[in-house]
Amino acid sequence: MSNTHDEHSGPGHVLPMKMLVGTFVALLALTVLTVITGKMSLYGFDLSIAMLIATVKATLVAMIFMHLKWDRPFNGYIFLVAVLFVGMFLAYVVADTKEYQPDIKGWTDQQISKPASE
Amino acid sequence: MSSDHHDPLLAHHFDDMEQQFDTNKFGMWVFLLTEILFFSGLFVAYAVYRSNHSDVFEYASQYLNTNLGALNTIVLLLSSFTAAWAVRAAQLGQNGLVTKLLGVTVLCAFGFMAIKAEEYSHKYHEGLLWGGAEHSIFKVDTNTVDPAVAEHSEYWSEVKELPPEFRRQIGIFFGIYFCLTGLHGIHVIIGIIVILWLMRRNVRGDFSPQKYDAIDLGALYWHLVDLIWIYLFPLLYLIS
Amino acid sequence: MTTTDPSVNYLNHEKGLRSWLMTLDHKRLGLMYMWSTFVAMLLGGSFALALRLELFAPGQQIMSKDFYNHMFTLHGAVMIFLVIIPSIPAALGNFVLPIMLGAKDVAFPKLNRFSYHLYLTGAVFLIAAILTGGLDTGWTFYTPYSTSTDTSVIIAVMGAFILGFSSIFTGLNFIATIHKMRPPGMTWFRMPLLLWALYATSVIQILATPVLGIALLMLIVERVLGVGILDPALGGDPVLFQHLFWFYSHPAVYVMILPAMGVLSEMFAVYSRKQIFGYRYIAYSSISIAIVSFIVWGHHLYVSGQSTMVSVIFSAITFTVAIPSAIKVFNWIATMYKGSINLTTGMISALAVIWLFGIGGLTGLWMANLSTDMHLHDTYFVVSHFHFVMVGSALFSYLGAVHHWWPKMFGVMYDEGKGRLWTIMTFIGFNITFLPQFLLGTRGMPRRYFDYAPQFEFLNKVSTIGSMIVGLSIVMVFWNLLRSLKNGKKAPANPWGGVTLEWQCASPPSPHNFEDAPTVGDPYDMSQNRFVSDEEGYVPVTPSENDPYVYQVKVEEA
Ligand SMILES: [Cu+2]
Question: Is the pTM of this model over 0.90?
Answer without folding.
Answer: yes
